[in-house]
Amino acid sequence: MELNLGYDKMGTRLSQIGSTPIEYDRMGTRAIRFGDHELSYDKLGARLQAIGDSTIEYDRLGTRATSVGPHQLRYDKLGTRLHTIGPLSVAYDRFGTRLCAIGPFTVGHDKLGSRPRRLDAGDRLQSIEAETLTLLFYVLAVDWPRWRDRHEKRN
């Protein structure tokens, strides 16, 4: 099974995972819908609170998600990079700058290697559950861009 990842015309915002579209607000800065799931944010509109019925819980400081629905999130020793989200492990290249795998999916990148372009599970999967698709959305559209942006600002 292969899922292609689509981007907007500028090539900067993830616009679909497989056949599931991601819609953005009028300004184009914040995702408001993922497929049939409405995305809800806190009162300031900055922190994602839910993906459909899956509530997102945060740590005491409110800076790092600890769960998406019933699925716990685990991070590396420094607490910066996501390593597991529920049943899915998240792997990075040896420098920690590119996603390499999410659960059974290997991540294929564009020619420059900067953007994930496809998820490939080979023959290991014939279909994907809606809940797994939600977790993939969280990793690809919420967690990974946030980590990448922080990392790029440091360098």
Structure, explained:
The protein is an alpha+beta fold. The chain has one domain (2-154). The protein contains 1 helix and 14 strands. The protein has a 14-stranded antiparallel barrel with strand order 1-2-3-4-5-6-7-8-9-10-11-12-13-14. It is globular. The model has no long low-confidence stretch (mean pLDDT 87).
**Strand percentage:** 35-45%
Describe the largest sheet: 14 strands, antiparallel, barrel
Helix/strand order = EEEEEEEEEEEEEEH
Number of strands: 14
Quick structural summary:
It contains 1 helix and 14 strands, in the order E-E-E-E-E-E-E-E-E-E-E-E-E-E-H.
Characteristics:
155 residues; alpha+beta; 1 helix; 16% helix; globular
Give the secondary structure arrangement, pairings included.
Layout: E1 2-7, E2 14-17, E3 20-24, E4 31-34, E5 37-41, E6 48-51, E7 54-58, E8 65-68, E9 71-75, E10 82-85, E11 88-92, E12 99-102, E13 105-109, E14 116-120, H1 130-154
Antiparallel strand pairs: 1-2, 1-14, 2-3, 3-4, 4-5, 5-6, 6-7, 7-8, 8-9, 9-10, 10-11, 11-12, 12-13, 13-14
